[in-house]
């Protein structure tokens, strides 16, 4: 005769055998494939240049750019509102490419400029803004936050 105890016992054995047959997850390295740093330089009173230096740390990565946009810049005000973004009114091709550099230990620079304007091409008022410089790789982008101390040259 089958009792509740026997049913529970068979259930537990079945679960244990099933769990032991399940393939174990492969350890995924937590270290990113690139080491990135960003330098911000004031070009002149009306413009900043952001230069990201990427150094290749690992080759075993599936990171890609999903489009030809390889660097992105957002300028954000103190209230968290995006005032300017580099992809405003641009269309990018869907070419999938691997981030540079393509050799271990080598470096590559990405750069972008900002001319103190918002998305409507108006010069932003004097103040502190956050620059978010992004290498938009998938599955996870590289994001660097920096502070911009912007002085409107027309004030």
Gyration radius, in Å? 25 Å
Number of helices: 1
Tell me the count of domains. 1
- Poorly predicted sequence stretches spanning 5 or more consecutive residues: 20-28
Q: Classify the secondary structure makeup into a structural class.
A: mainly beta
In order across it, which strands form the biggest sheet? Answer: 5-4-7-9
**CATH overall fold name:** Immunoglobulin-like
The percentage helix is 10-25%
CATH superfamily: Intracellular proteinase inhibitor BsuPI
> Beta-sheet strand percentage?
35-45%
- Spell the H/E element sequence: HEEEEEEEEE
Mean pLDDT: 85
Main sheet attributes: strand count, strand direction, barrel closure: 4 strands, antiparallel
State the shape: extended
Q: What is the CATH first-level class name?
A: Mainly Beta
Write up what this structure looks like.
- By secondary structure, this protein is mainly beta.
- The chain has one domain (34-150): Intracellular proteinase inhibitor BsuPI (Immunoglobulin-like, Sandwich), CATH 2.60.40.
- The chain has one helix spanning 4-21; strands at residues 34-44, 47-56, 64-65, 72-76, 82-85, 107-114, 127-135, 137-138, 142-150.
- It has a four-stranded antiparallel beta sheet with strand order 5-4-7-9, with no helix packed on it. A three-stranded antiparallel beta sheet has the order 1-2-6, with no helix packed on it.
- It is extended.
